[in-house]
Write a structure and sequence with these properties.
The protein has helices at 7-22, 29-36, 40-44, 46-68, 71-88, 94-122, 127-135, 137-151, 155-175, 195-218, 220-226, 232-254, 257-278, 284-294, 301-306, 314-330, 332-339, 344-372. The protein is mostly helical and 377 residues long. It has one domain (2-178, 194-372): Growth Hormone, Chain: A, CATH 1.20.1250.20. The protein is globular and about 50 Å long. It is a multi-pass membrane protein. Keywords: Membrane, Transmembrane, Transmembrane helix. The chain crosses the membrane at residues 12-32, 38-65, 72-90, 96-120, 132-152, 158-177, 198-218, 230-251, 258-277, 283-304, 316-339, 345-366.
């Protein structure tokens, strides 16, 4: 493991910048809407388009990673999301934004999906803590978007900077990776009789995780802007979400992952119901903070999934599970905006309730299976 320890920063830096790239659009939705004379919901459609690209990228690149190794795929994925974030700055129509975000998603989710197997293959202990820290970089990447926007308000300049930053740091970080896969892995006949039912159960968890967390990063900035709340709260909420992810990852190493997931998802449903009842009250930021913390169950989901598949199919299997999460979860910000166009908060609350229940049920099933057959999970 010692000679592979460089893989930790080698996956974390690109992971951070992948989140930075993909959620950069959340800060400039009103500007793009005004620029191309379209509705807010039309701009938000870029998010599900991104996740559709990500679902395809995850499957294709995961297949290649299982057969030809992880490192080259990580480098190509980092190049993709950096280049197309940069090119998005020169868009002349909303359709060009859509095309760029599709390709950004292809790179981002390929990178993310392969990062989990790399960590599992590199680390033997405390992978939930490290994995939770890595997953929490979604919030730090989102926070970097808000910080960059403080200095660069114009959307084209902002995207140029975001693309250049991603290229300058993500690609070199990918280059330092030590290969953890091999061509030999894919040649082994590995059959798991529980593959289908575990894949379905984990898909419920991952769909719920994406549905719960993506609107918090894609929709909440628009809520804060519309209510004329100080935008610094976007950064504050990002840090709260980061803390929740790290805490959940740590707890998942100390206790059974299924129980920790059930605790966080159950709390998430309760807090989302409070958000639904309170709406745009004076306590909005505080309530949102509790929802952000509850989203921490997403933090160890990638590690949890990856550690339950054999090495020869790990990258592909992980991306198969994440395929459905990316497709369904990617539409969640758009769905939240459509539920009640007059109150995005209401839509976010409904989506989080449904997502939390799905993830709770999936976690309960996996934990029950673990209790019956400890060696498998």
């Amino acid at each position: 493991m010692a000679d592979h320890i460089r893989n930790v920063p080698g996956v974390m830096i690109p992971f951070l910048l992948s989140a930075f790239s993909v959620f950069s659009i959340s800060m400039i939705v009103p500007q793009i809407s005004s620029q191309f004379h379209v509705s807010i919901s039309a701009v938000l459609l870029a998010i599900p388009i991104d996740f559709i690209g990500g679902a395809l990228g995850g499957i294709v690149m995961g297949y290649i990673a299982d057969r030809h190794g992880r490192k080259a795929v990580m480098i190509v994925s980092s190049l993709l999301f950096g280049i197309f974030t940069l090119l998005a700055a020169f868009s002349t129509s909303l359709y060009m934004i859509y095309a760029c975000w599709f390709l950004i998603g292809f790179g981002v989710n390929a990178q993310n999906g392969i990062s989990y197997p790399v960590l599992v293959e590199t680390l033997r202990r405390s992978s939930g803590t490290i994995g939770g820290t890595m997953q929490s970089l979604y919030f730090l990447g989102f926070m970097l978007d808000s910080v960059l926007f403080v200095f660069l308000h114009y959307w084209r300049t902002y995207l140029i900077a975001a693309g250049l930053i991603s290229l300058l740091f993500a690609v070199p970080a990918s280059l330092i990776l030590e290969e953890t896969g091999s061509r030999r892995m894919s040649g082994r006949a590995e059959r798991d009789p529980n593959f289908l039912r575990y894949t379905v159960a984990f898909s419920f968890i991952v769909i719920g995780a994406f549905m719960f967390s993506v609107p918090l990063m894609a929709d909440v900035p628009s809520v804060i802007s519309a209510l004329r709340i100080n935008p610094v709260y976007v950064t504050v909420l990002s840090l709260v979400g980061f803390a929740g992810f790290v805490l959940a990852g740590y707890l998942s190493d100390r206790y059974r992952r299924g129980y920790v997931a059930m605790g966080f998802t159950g709390a998430g449903v309760i807090f989302a119901i409070v958000l639904l009842l309170e709406g745009e009250s004076h306590y909005l930021i505080a309530i949102l903070g509790t929802v952000y913390i509850s989203s921490g169950f997403f933090s160890f989901s990638g590690i949890w999934v990856s550690e339950n598949y054999p090495p020869g199919s790990r990258a592909l299997a992980t991306n198969i599970v994440f395929f459905s999460g990316r497709i369904v979860g990617g539409f969640s910000p758009f769905i939240a905006a459509l539920i009640d166009p007059s109150s995005l908060v209401y839509g976010i609350a409904i989506v989080c309730i449904v997502a939390g229940l799905m993830a709770f049920l999936g976690s309960a099933y996996v934990q029950a299976s673990k209790s019956r057959k400890p060696a498998l999970l």
